[in-house]
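Before going further, learn to read the protein records used in this course. Taken together, the tokens spell out the fold as the letters spell out the chain. A record is reproduced here so that you can trace the correspondence yourselves:

***
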Amino acid sequence: MKIRSKYKQNLIKGELLKLYKKNNPSLPTNLKKKLKINGEIFNKLSFPPRFFKNLSVGNFACGTGEFCFFAAQNGAKTEGFDFNEISIDKAKKNAKKLKIKNCKFYAKEFFKIKKKYDFVICTAALHHLPNPYDGLKFLKSRVKKNGFLLVSFGLSSSNI
């Protein structure tokens, strides 16, 4: 059973990488503009930039790390995780370009992250998992007591 499950996971990962390479929606052409948009979104969600000061932030399925940069620039210690090494390499390069030191990135599978955070974010990824509900339960387990979890789910019409 375990071998079959691992095989399915590798198939899913392979399909996601093909889709990513074809569409690559998370490679912003204007990084500063993308960071400004992130700030506007979080203000509308009542998460003003000062909210992130001194928080530990885990971004699961971080893509190229734009949210990590936003939180780090506003005082958080951030860690971004993605199984896609292409995204992680880009995130690391952008962190250097932006001179952000309190932001680290790791190529790591979703369910292998053991650390807990004050603020966990996962956007546009849960619907790619074989069982999104298990993913949501796992994310909840990565949030420290009295912490925050922010997720978005992909639908055929958009993300919510």
